[in-house]
Amino acid sequence: MLKDRLDTFDEFKSINSQYDIQKLYSRGDFVTRVGGLSSSWRKGSGDVALWKYYQRIFDMDVDENTGDAKLTVTGWTAEDAHNIATALVHDAIVNLNYQDRQQDAETITAAELECDRLRKSLSEDDIAIAAWRAQSGALDPKIDYASLLDEASQLNTKRIELKGQFEAISRNAPNSPSAISLQSQMAVINGGVQDSLNSAKTLFPSASTYEGLTIKRETDAKLLEAAGAALQQARINAAQNHYYVEMIGSPSNPKSPAGPYSLKWVSIVFIVSMILYAVLG
């Protein structure tokens, strides 16, 4: 990942804006400097060609077992190589931290948006249930329906009891004031029974609407709970699943050059070739 990032054209432009690669790497020998042999008669180099050259001035070896990475930068002076290596390490750390923050933001933001959406949906469910209750005058149709039937049953039991008393008094004392009173009570109770039954009949059809509202609210509440757990897990993962770069050692700044040896090897190859030609000839 780090090597891929450092190889990009964007990273090349960043390094080139800080250190003029064309200028720094034109000071080498005619073989390894920017443009190679053609630099002797052609000045300057296109961005793409310079980018390809930039990719050859550094190398990164990563130990798959330990995760340790070694960055090697080639320069015509120790100072140039040290400065470019420092800039590459800095950019690698900055880019990795940026990727971590971006990934965290995308994951956590998506989870937060889902939680907000479900909270809004749950609030709308509560408003819909409150509106249904205000319109129907009932709190819960199941409870109210059962309560009305129970009320009608109790009133009917009372009516039967009064009817028995009324019939007994009517047989023994037909014109008794008690019989007239019982008759009035039965009429009131009959009206109460009928009112309870009528209310229950009216309430029953709307129970399906209320049930649909409550099921939706229960579903949204469970989804919100799950979304909250997912948000918490996203925050935990954001803290755990980061890529980290820790500098084990600062870029070295040697006092003497380790190269280049292009002309040296060209001379060696030439001399060996001449010796072989003389011997074999």
Short description:
This is Capsule biosynthesis protein. Helices cover about 75% and strands about 5% of the residues. With about 280 residues, the protein is mainly alpha-helical.
Walk me through what this model shows.
The protein has two domains: 2-102 and 244-260, no CATH class; 119-240. The protein is 73% helix and 4% strand. The protein is built from eight helices and two strands. Strands 1-2 form a two-stranded antiparallel sheet. Strand 1 (58-62) and strand 2 (69-73) form a beta hairpin. The relative contact order is 0.10. The model is unreliable at 37-42 (pLDDT under 50). This is Capsule biosynthesis protein. GO terms for molecular function: protein tyrosine kinase activity.
List keywords for this structure.
2 domains; mainly alpha; 8 helices; 4% strand
Helices and strands, with pairings:
Layout: H1 2-7, H2 9-18, H3 21-24, H4 47-56, E1 58-62, E2 69-73, H5 78-136, H6 141-172, H7 177-240, H8 262-280
Antiparallel strand pairs: 1-2
